[in-house]
Amino acid sequence: LRLLEAQLQDQRREHEEEIEALKTQVDALQEEMEKQHQAFLQTLQLSPEAQVEFGLQQEITRLTNENLDLKELLERLEKNERKLKKQLKIYMKRVQDFEASQATVPAERRRHEQNMQVSVQRKEKDFQGMLEYYKEDEPLLIRNLIT
């Protein structure tokens, strides 16, 4: 019972926090809407030439902000690319070190490993299909399989 009460209180607290966050968001949106409304009313009072200029200024501002966001994204992606290239170099070095260590393995052991690989390859070749046919006969083969 106490566990259920604690869970209920946690859910109630989370719900209240969510409501407060949403109220804050609504208030911010209302303020933004009021600012846009005031700007719209001011624009209507301007001459047609001034309205066009104001619209252009607004568009320039919007595009500038969008460009800044895209530059930030580009910088993050470039940073990630540098990080990945660095990791790739590290892994390539590890592979080279591993290959070098394999070169020092006795020849007998390497021959044994190669024989094992060859046998695996032969097994795979044995099971690569059950039917051999010409490409031109494929429609006839499909029709016969269906009927």
From TrEMBL:
Name of this chain's protein: Unconventional myosin-Vb
Coiled coil: 1-94
UniProt keywords, alphabetically: Coiled coil
Lineage: Eukaryota, Metazoa, Chordata, Craniata, Vertebrata
